[in-house]
Amino acid sequence: MRTDPDAPDRNEDRVTDSSDTTRRKLAAVVYNPIKIDLDAVKRVVAAEEQAAGWEPTLWFETSKEDPGGGQAKQALEAGAGVVIAAGGDGTVRAVAEVVEGTDAALALLPSGTGNLLARNLSLTLNDLEHSLHSAFAGGDRSIDVGLTDIYREDGSHTRHAFLVMAGFGIDAKMLAATDDELKAKVGWLAYVKAFGQVLRDKNRLRLRFKLDGEDVRRMSAHTLIIGNAGSLPGNILLLPEAAVDDGLLDIVIMRPEQLVGWIQIFTKVLWENGVLGRVPFLRRFRTREVKALNYLRGKVLRVRLNHPEEIELDGDPFGKAIGMVTRVAERGLTVRVPADVAESPETPAEEQQPLAEADA
């Protein structure tokens, strides 16, 4: 959802926050009732809104049919200046998809097993009071958003946003194979069983892709992942150069050949990225690239597959797609963070151009 510059201003009662951005002192909580203790959240919200002198907070419950997008739209139409996503990664992604490109801000109340965006922003996890204090009394940080047009075999397409990663291959197949009931009981351990099933899958992606203005490339690969941020749960650094505010997409293509290829990938990701890359004086020992793992960077990626494959966005399965066009909306989303780490006011990013057709 984007605001209309010619529409009347609904937010007459505005406040200047610590990052010098003006918006109405009204928050809305979009919450997944399964993921949070609603009574506890309401108690803390009431205390924080009163201390900050804000209007009474609005509340919108998600559903299986609508994981947060429709509720976020209602919140913005009601004039909310801050929309708090209280739930898992699916709730955060759905809310961000609507808040992106508006003058409202997204606040995070991390819950669930992933918390991918919160981890990549180094926000506090499992601290209800701290998270909600940041929502009401914190500052702003502008981050990039990945915008993806997903093309289906029947010719239809839909547009979605992602905040951390999207892709085809092992991650999407693993999500499709994961038992939801087992995940609810044991969290991320549920993916271990699905991971084993996927590794036995001999099917490979047959794709052609075009990155920015480069020539079209054709490739056979196991997995293609597009990242706006680099870290996964378990402190796994998949994309070592990725940053949420650099205006670039980081892309990794996995092309393992039998067991030796997987050894190369695991060594690169777990040892070089995860250990050497986190210690400044050891970084010079990293290899730039290995045969089984290729890194690319750019602003617009067009992908076309030979046959439909499972696709995922921020850990949510989106069915099968025959292609995708992904671009970066540079600093398209404002996120509430603790006041001591908020950014200084900056010039807004240039207006983004619409996507072209998927013509890779």
From TrEMBL:
One of its GO terms (molecular function) is kinase activity. PROSITE patterns: DAGK (PS50146). Its cofactor is Mg(2+). Residues 22-151 form the DAGKc domain. Gene3D superfamilies: 2.60.200.40, Probable inorganic polyphosphate/atp-NAD kinase, domain 1. InterPro entries: ATP-NAD_kinase_N, Diacylglycerol_kinase_cat_dom, Lipid_Phosphate_FormReg, NAD/diacylglycerol_kinase_sf, YegS/DAGK_C. Keywords: ATP-binding, Kinase, Lipid biosynthesis, Lipid metabolism, Nucleotide-binding, Phospholipid biosynthesis, Phospholipid metabolism, Transferase. The keyword Ligase does not apply. Residues 1-21, 338-360 are annotated as: Disordered. The keyword ATP-binding applies. Pfam families: DAGK_cat (PF00781), YegS_C (PF19279). Belongs to the diacylglycerol/lipid kinase family. This is Diacylglycerol kinase family protein. It comes from Amnibacterium soli.
